[in-house]
Amino acid sequence: MSALLHLDLLKEEERFSSNPVRLRIIMPMVAVTIAVGCALWWCMLGLQAHGMNLTKAGLRENIDQLKGAHAAFIDLRMQEKEAGSIYQQLRYYENSIIRFGPTLTRLPELVPANIQLTELRVLPPPAPLIDAKQPELGPTNKTEAVTLRLAGRTCGETASADVDALLAALRGPAHTNLIRQAVIPKGAFRQDTMRSPDQREMLLFEITCTCLPRRFE
Asked: How many angstroms separate the most distant Cα atoms in the chain?
């Protein structure tokens, strides 16, 4: 059997790959595609940045235009809040009114003939505690003490009994809608030392009436 002889006359650079996709063609295409993609990506980023800058400039311009209107709105809100607070406090004071009229109208009927009243007034309430950090208009508490003070003088053998009768009348059921408690403070029923010795039979007295409190609600 004769041996077969195979003679290869092709040079190495003349050989063709069996692969249908040639690297020397695909590599430039891939490089061009990547470059085009990067360029498009940078263009999109640039357009987005430009659009955001335009939007930012438009918003800033709108904000500058609305600053005056916003300041006016804030000022109106503050005025509305202050007016609402004043109105609410006035409502509180209206609701807290205590009617002294019926009691004072009947007072002449209660005072004995030999008693002369020299003073009749409502004592001012103690000053409310106000927080300096949070000042408020009007009352800072829901209730306020009310005290009615009567002062007078009397004389005669029935002076002490007459004062006691006036005190009992103020404590009577006809005045419970106003007066909670009526007392003669210690030392408030005394001799009038300002008169001459021969006229010191005149006696001075004071009656303190604790009334229903004002309610600011």
From this structure: 180
pTM of the model as a whole = 0.54
Convert the pLDDT of each residue in 67-89 to its tens digit: 888 888 899 999 999 998 888 88
**For residues 35 and 21, what is the distance between their CA atoms, to the nearest angstrom?**
21
216 in Cβ contact with 142 (< 8 Å): yes
Three-point CA angle 141, 143, 144, nearest 5°: 100
Of 180, 66, 76, 81, nearest in space to 137 by CA? 81
Contact 146, 98 (CB under 8 A): yes
Nearest CA to 170 among 116, 206, 123? 206
Measured CA to CA in angstroms, residue 140 lies from 81, 101, 147, 216, 217 at distances of 17, 27, 19, 9, 11
Q: Is the pLDDT of residue 131 over 60?
A: no
Cβ-Cβ contacts under 8 Å for 120 (sequence gap 6 or more) = 104, 107, 148, 149, 150, 151
The SS3 call for residue 106 is helix
Q: What is the pLDDT of residue 150?
A: 92
The closest of 199, 208, 53 to 146, measured between CA atoms, is: 208
